[in-house]
Amino acid sequence: MVRPQIEYFYSAHSAYAYLGARRLSQIADEAGWEIVHRPFDFLPVVAAAGGPPLAKRTQGHIDYFFGRELVRWAHWRDQPILRHRPTHHDNALAPASGMILASPDPTPLSAAILRAHWVDDADIADRATLIAIADEAGQDGGALFATGQSAPVQAQFAANTAEACARCVPGSPTYFVRGDMFYGQDRLEMIKFALGTPFPD
């Protein structure tokens, strides 16, 4: 029997995807829904949606949304988080995204990659680091890294990015339930409701 799906668009280095990952998995498991992972390249998606790059945002905006809000949500979700911008935050997303797409069980691997970035300050563009993360998650890191960098998988990563742009995804994480878009991990309780009862048009 085919399970209904939550489409999960996000970047592999997203703080708010990290903070929402555990709750998303709980909600999907409880409802019997499948999470379909759509990791994308962050900057083109935000630009397509009309969002300003970080360099053009005020310091007050950055301090609130990527400072105070992160601290509060980490406390609310009972999850640790760095108190500074990850050291390797500007590195490429393709390596980690490829591994997630290549994985036969992407939900725990994705959560492990996000946690490594936001708790351990790991470089999630580094081959050895990604292999170690996957191995620790009980998956074959070497095989996943090789497959994840293959042309077909990287084409899927590019397709996810193009689809996110076309669907006006405003940022990471963004979820779709029956085509209805929910932006931000702070919408997860609304998603839980929507799995049973769609919101009116």
Automatic annotation (TrEMBL):
List the active-site residues: 14
Do you know which InterPro entries this protein is assigned to? DSBA-like_thioredoxin_dom, GST_Kappa/NadH, HCCAis_GSTk, NahD-like, Thioredoxin-like_sf
Record's keyword terms, sorted: Isomerase
A GO BP annotation:
naphthalene catabolic process
Residue ranges of every copy of the DSBA-like thioredoxin domain listed in the record: 5-195
Enzyme Commission identifier(s): 5.99.1.4
The organism's superkingdom is given as: Bacteria
Stretches of the chain forming a coiled coil according to its record? none
The catalysed reaction is: 2-hydroxychromene-2-carboxylate = (3E)-4-(2-hydroxyphenyl)-2-oxobut-3-enoate
Under the heading SUPFAM superfamilies, the entry gives: Thioredoxin-like
Q: Kindly give the Pfam families that the UniProt entry links to this protein.
A: DSBA (PF01323)
Q: Does the keyword Cell wall biogenesis/degradation apply?
A: no
Q: Which GO terms describe its molecular function?
A: 2-hydroxychromene-2-carboxylate isomerase activity; glutathione peroxidase activity; glutathione transferase activity
According to its UniProt record, which protein family does this protein belong to? Belongs to the GST superfamily. NadH family.
Q: Any idea what this protein is called?
A: 2-hydroxychromene-2-carboxylate isomerase
- From what organism does this protein derive? Sulfitobacter albidus
